[in-house]
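Problem 12. The chain below contains 393 residues. Write out its predicted structure in C-alpha cell notation.
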Amino acid sequence: MCWLDVMNKAVKLLLPLLIVAVSLGIAVVMTMVRPEAKLDPPALPSLLVDVGVIERRDVTFSVRSQGSVSPRTQTTLVAEAQGQIIDVSPAFVSGGFFRKGDVLIRIDPRNYEANVKRARANVARAVTQLETESALAGYAAQDYERLRRVNPDQGPASGLALRKPQMKQALAELHSTEADLDKALGDLDRTVIRAPYDGMVRNKVADVGQYVSPGTTLGVTFAVDIAEVRLPVTQNDLQYLDLDQLRADVPIAVRLEANFGGDTVTRLGTINRSEGVFDTSSRVLYLVAEIEDPYGLNDDEQIPLIMGTFVAAEIGGQAAGKLAVVPRYALQRGGTLWLIDDQLRIFPRQVEVVRRDEDFVYIAEGVENGERYCLTPIDQPLPGMQVRLGRAS
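Solution.
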C-alpha cells in the first residue's frame, strides 16, 4: 500500500471530526458574543366592568308588602219578618250596586198590616177607657165635695173614692196598647229590606216566591265607600316605619299597585291602624290600609279596584338622612364594596350598611360623593387588579 492511499484514508476519517469541531467552535463563539435577551413581563389581563358613581341623597325609607282588597263593612242580610217574598229589586243580584235606603226585598205585609189595625183599635179603646175613668174621677171628686158641705166633719177622701186606682189602670192599659202598636208598626216596617249603606251585592240567596222566616239568610252585601287591605310587616321592617305616628292617630301614606290584564292600576291609601298583635305562626304584624271609593263610583276616570284583587304595597317610612344607595348585587359578602381608582385599579372598602332591601343597600359611612365603584360582580377579585370601564350607571 502506497503512502497516498494511507493519506486518503486518514483524510476521510479526520474530515468529519474537523467539521464537527469547527461547528462547535463557531457555536461557542456566537453564544459568547450574542446580546442579552430582554425579558418583558406579560401584561396582566384587564376585566371589563360596569361602573357606578357614589351620590349621597336624602332617603326616606319605605316598606314593601302585599295583600288582598277586602270590604271594610260586610253584612249578611237576614229576614226579620215571616212571609213570602213578593218583590226583589233589580239591583239585588250578585255584583249589583245600590244606594243607602234603596228597597232591596219586600215580604208579603198583609198579616202585619192586620196586626197594625188591631193594635190601633186597642189604642182607641184604651183612650176611650181612660177618658171615661177621667170623667168618673171628676164626678167622684164633685160628689165628695158636696158630701163635705153636708157633713163638715167628714175626713179627706180616699184614693179609691176618687177612682185613682181605676185611672192608673186605664193609663197603664193605654201605654201597653201604644207599645203594641209600635211593635206592630216595626214588624210591618221589617217586611221591607232596605240597603243600610251605599254598597254592592256579593251573594244573592233568596228570590221572589220564597217563603222566609226570621233569621233566614237573604244575601251578603258590602259597603263600597272604603275598602281595606291587610298588609303583613315583619318585626325587622317595623323599625323603618313611624309607629308613633299611628299611635297619635296620624295616618301613614301607602301606595298600592295592581295588575289588570297587563295594565297597572295605582291607588293611594292610608294606614290608620294595626291589628295590635303579632301572628304567632308567621311573626308578622298586620297593618290595615284603607282605600276610599275603591270602585270609582265618584270618579268615572278611576279604574275600579275590585274586591279580592291582589295588590303590592309601598308603605311610607321614616326619613333616614343623606345615604349612598348602591345596587345590592354590587356589594360583596361582609359589607365590602370594590372601588375603582384613577389608574383603573380596584381596591376593597368596608362600608356601614344601615339597610338592605330586595334591590338596594343603603350606606351611611365608608364612601364619599364622586367615588367610582364596580357594579359587575368579580369572581375572586384581588386588590390592584386592572379593569376596563364599561357601561356607567
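Discussion. The mean pLDDT is 84. Students who got a different answer should revisit the alignment rule from Section 12.3.
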